[in-house]
Amino acid sequence: MSLPAVPARFKTGDRVQVRRAFPPGHVRTPWYIRGLAGTIQRLCGTYPNPEELAYARSGAPAQPLYRVRFLQREVWPDYSGSPLDTVDIEIYQHWLDPAQEADHERAA
Amino acid sequence: MSELHDHPHEHPHEHPHPTLPDHQEHLSYWQAMEVAVRELLIEKGIVTADEVRRQVEDMDGRNAGMGAKMVARAWLDPAYKQRMFDDGNAAAEEVGLDHGAYKLVVVENTPSVHNVIVCTLCSCYPRWLLGLPPDWYKSRNYRSRVVREPRAVLREFGLDLPDSVTVRVHDSTADMRYLVLPLRPAGTEGWSEAQLAALATRDSMIGVAVADSPQG
Question: How far apart are CA B116 and CA A88, in angstroms?
Fold first, then answer.
């Protein structure tokens, strides 16, 4: 694809935090995961930004798309299954920040 | 008392028979839009009604047999299985399947990990491998609950997993499409690819069930 792309910022194993934001429009980041921290499982490639595509624009610049893994017990405080259970979600890079170390230690 | 109509019909009815209407009373906005666009395209000679019909027939004709073919080959051929994890689209092409615009991610069930697929935002689904999604896959109930309490939902499907098995939910939110590689059932040593494919059911490739066992 000839669409200009944003370079990938994260690699497998990096801890990231999903932006806690609620913009209007066609957003592919589920509400339930906004603001939470997870681990990059893999980079899936770069794809046209769906928030732009939805308004018939080109989707430029293309965004790196990651599969991010979250622990269910961190997503749902009352989760009753195994503490190892996870949910993997595809998230575009512009929705991700490096995880805050302070949060990290608090969680540990 | 039976709801069936087994009483004789000579008396005039006062009570109305429940009927199932042939058509919905009102088209939704998008249904009306679909009809309008389709009719315009045909009127202007861009597509023919027969081409539209053929496309619908193709879509309806897709079924889980496509995905099952990949699963059976992966059960037989470890090198193919590895290629399937490395590049799902290329692995689909190897068995003669066109993957369309999406990228296929295959996730593997093991004795200690069980995977299940959902699209919480809409109903993303690998149609070219599994056919049209079942109604429950598109229901709000499944979409909201399987991500929140997957073990309870799987139990409702008849799959009771011990806590020693990790459950991984995959929320198909963007450009990937997912296929679960179920565990190969025991007792299938020496089976052919076609025999094995018959055990890889649609639901086992979505992850709400395990593959059929040879006893059926």
Answer: 10
- Contact (CB<8Å) A85/B147: no
Q: Going residue by residue through chain A (108 aa), what tens digit of pLDDT does each one get?
A: 578 999 999 999 999 999 999 999 999 999 999 999 999 999 999 999 999 999 999 999 999 999 999 999 999 999 999 999 999 999 999 999 999 855 544 444
What are the extents of the domains in chain A?
Answer: 15-107
Pairing mode of beta strands A86-92, A96-98? unpaired
- This model's pTM is above 0.80: yes
ipTM: 0.92
Q: Which CATH architecture has domain A15-107?
A: Roll (2.30)
> Is B172 considered catalytic here?
no
> How far apart (Å, rounded) are the C-alpha atoms in residues B175 and B173?
7
With an 8 Å Cβ cutoff, the interface of chain A facing chain B consists of 28-30, 32, 44-45, 47, 50, 65, 67, 72, 76, 79-82, 84-92
Compute the residue count for chain B.
216
